[in-house]
Fold this protein.
Amino acid sequence: MEPGLEKLRDEVFRRNPGESEFHQAVTEVFEALGPVVNRHPEYVESGILRRMCEPERQIIFRVPWVDDNGHVQINRGFRVEFNSALGPYKGGLRFHPSVYLGIIKFLGFEQIFKNALTGMPIGGGKGGSDFNPAGRTDAEIMRFCQSFMTELYRHIGEYTDVPAGDIGVGTREIGYLFGQYKRITNRFESGVLTGKGMSWGGSLVRPEATGYGAVMFADQMLRTRGASMDGQTVLVSGSGNVALNAIAKSQQLGATVLTASDSSGYVVDEDGIDLELLRQVKEVRRGRIAEYAEERGGRSRFVADGCVWDVPGTVAIPSATQNELDDKSALTLIDNGLVALAEGANMPCTQKATEHMIHAGVLFGPGKAANAGGVATSALEMQQNASRDTWSFEYTHDKLEQIMTDLHDRCLETADRYGTPGNYVVGANIAGFVKVADAMLAQGVI
Ligand code: NDP
């Protein structure tokens, strides 16, 4: 790392103690920015980078709610409004027991560069809660969401901050959040949240967009070597929104998807995952992944204590959570003949895992590029809301495809321009950074 950047990174660590995921995200960006800072030292000298690491606003609040047994429960809510140089803060809400400020800051920081890369006019933010939705009834989820929005509503708005879903937050939760926002403000302000249901301001393709986009990105990377997704054997982790749609798009493009997982283990299906059955188990019944193997009648096996990355495959789409793929798994995947990896999740690969794969010549699509299709389609949802319009599936899908192609090419061109051909990590970070930095410079000391 450049000495100027190293000094700044140490300062960020000191100012944000104990936030290991945020430290990791900052380190990844700083490692990649070396070539641009060498050429343009003014980015460090002007304090732009230091300002970028400090969120514009951090909101932490109490979320009291009553469970089905009449007991009062307390959770902690977060919204980190990181950067508004390019547009209103934009980024999802995560409901998971592991959530604390360091996770929200890592996700918000990543979001700044990802959103810039999409070419859409959106800033970066992220939020969520340490609320655990697992095992909660529908009524409990609703009461939690209503209480969460009772505080959040005063900080968001179509021109201010536009949240969406993430882990533990899907269309159901967005519905309860939107309903409460509408009730408090007495406004049908559809552009305040994205990921809405189709009949009340949602966009076609938004549910599919992140998983579809990640596979489109993998396909683009493979095409630089004269291959494509057709005929690949694909390893997917997770079985939520991103994973299910990554499986769907891989299959549409002629690949065989061998795996899926959740926090209880993974399934291997040598014939290829039966997506309809997996959707039944995970989306409709909200069941566990073992039920898929049971109902597949011997054609699939469930592995409770192992690692999904031990299964041989040519393409990997990690789509569960941060740091789910470590250096050991990376070496196993490389030994087993991995050709390409696109991060469907945010920061699923540890720094060492990423380095191993890049050194081994694996085509490596970092999350801030590969999973940007979700937020890009959220921005398309905002466009439809602003113009009171509804686009067809095909039209929106074509737009997503174009955005992913442009984004892929931008990463590649930028990597080339800065002397690291084929390195998508460098390309994505520099392209996103330069766009935000130049906007901040133009807007004065903000
Ligand atoms: P979902 O809640 O729909 O699904 C998450 C999946 O990952 C579930 O299968 C879950 O299993 C599994 N998972 C979560 N945490 C862990 C863990 N600690 N260990 C093992 N498995 C785990 O979330 P999404 O699909 O929306 O999000 C997945 C990833 O994609 C996240 O990193 C998110 O930030 C990223 N992302 C999502 C976008 C979107 O549009 N939704 C946009 C861009 C990125 P279980 O049910 O057992 O917890």
Remarks:
- Residues 393-417 form the longest helix (25 residues).
- Residues 165-168, 210, 238-243, 262-264, 319-321, 344-346, 371, 374 surround NDP (CB under 6 Å).
- The two ends are 27 Å apart (CA to CA).
- The first strand starts at residue 57 and ends at 66.
